[in-house]
Amino acid sequence: MAQLSVVLKDLEQYTTFTPIMDERLQKIMAQWGIASRRHAEEMIQAGRVRVNGNLAHLGQKADPNRDQIEIDGKLIHPSRRPVPIYLLLNKPIGVVSTCLDPNGRPSVLDLLPRKLRVGEGIHPVGRLDVDSTGALLLTNDGELTFRLTHPRHFIPKTYQVWVQGNPSDSILQAWCQGVMLAGKKTLPAQVRCIQQIPGDQALLEVILYEGRKRQIRRVAEQLGYPVVELHRTAIGSIQLQPPGQPALSEGQYRSLSTSEIEFLRNPVSSPLVSVPVNPVESKE
């Protein structure tokens, strides 16, 4: 029996199964919070990624537990995978929605403490114009960023927009039905007037179901009512001022709740709430 035990023990080294979890490099980089999938692909193409000492290529697969993956000369350690972080920021005007601005302007990451800015892989999800303010998501979950920025998974976004002049009901209806921009009609939107300063300005609530570049500003300009101020109040059901809670101050951030994170992961199955309107005080 003792001899049999020795034989069985010797066999264990041959029969022990270690699963190989090969995944595409861009997916691994996204899971580690290094970059979104799209940015990861750009990094691979730029020669910034190596696997076992060799330059990586698009489509290549690897296993962080087995292979040595280097990003800009730094190894990915399986045991150092960052904890997922999900934040909502109230972006001020004049701050760019990037991790770093080549022109030296302040970025959204500059609004975070150093412990979140450095080493966590946090980045903005999508963009908000430098001249616009309001809700912006920040995370180090590259997989989630990939899904949320893909047109197929667009989440409605709500804005409060001051425009020059007083658009008529027919103008608002035209905006709702879609406007031609660069040869392509915009998707139907929800647009309603909240407040008017006769002959001067109007405050509109706009809910978009797509995210074309500077879409609200371009449509408003084309309709003859240029934007004066643009403020995003909500991303789906995620609001700067949740019901019964104080509003998130400009330049401040908060962690998302469990239900808000679940909404982002499963936006189709999560009901969109009606966003309460908090009219901005006009500057007469």
Describe this structure in words.
Helix 2 (25-31) packs across helix 3. The strands form 4 sheets. Strands 7, 8, 9, 10, 13, 14, 15, 16 and 17 form a 9-stranded mixed beta sheet that branches. A 4-stranded antiparallel beta sheet has the order 3-2-5-6. Strands 1-4 form a two-stranded antiparallel sheet. The model is unreliable at 1-20 and 269-284 (pLDDT under 50). Helix content is 24%, strand content 25%. It is an alpha+beta fold. The protein has a domain at 2-80: Roll (Structural Genomics Hypothetical 15.5 Kd Protein In mrcA-pckA Intergenic Region, Chain A), CATH 3.10.290. The radius of gyration is 24 Å and the shape is elongated.
Describe the main β-sheet briefly. Answer: 9 strands, mixed
CATH superfamily annotation of the domain at 2-80 = RNA-binding S4 domain
Record field, number of beta strands: 17
Structural class by helix and strand composition: alpha+beta
The overall average pLDDT, rounded, is 83
What is the overall shape? elongated
For this structure, the CATH topology of the domain at 2-80 is Structural Genomics Hypothetical 15.5 Kd Protein In mrcA-pckA Intergenic Region, Chain A
Strand content: 25-35%
CATH 2nd-level architecture of the domain at 2-80: Roll
- CATH class assignment of the domain at 2-80: Alpha Beta
Helix content: 10-25%
Distance between the termini: 95 Å
**Helix-strand pattern:** HEHHEEEEEEHEEHEHEEEEHEEEH
Would you identify the regions where 5 or more consecutive residues have pLDDT less than 50?
A: 1-20, 269-284
What's the Cα radius of gyration?
24 Å
- SS field, number of helical segments: 8
Keywords: Isomerase, RNA-binding
GO molecular function, one term: RNA binding
InterPro entries: PsdUridine_s_RsuA/RluB/E/F_cat, PsdUridine_synth_cat_dom_sf, PsdUridine_synth_RsuA/RluA, PsdUridine_synth_RsuA/RluB/E/F, PsdUridine_synth_RsuA/RluB_CS, RsuA_PseudoU_synthase, S4_RNA-bd, S4_RNA-bd_sf
Family: Belongs to the pseudouridine synthase RsuA family.
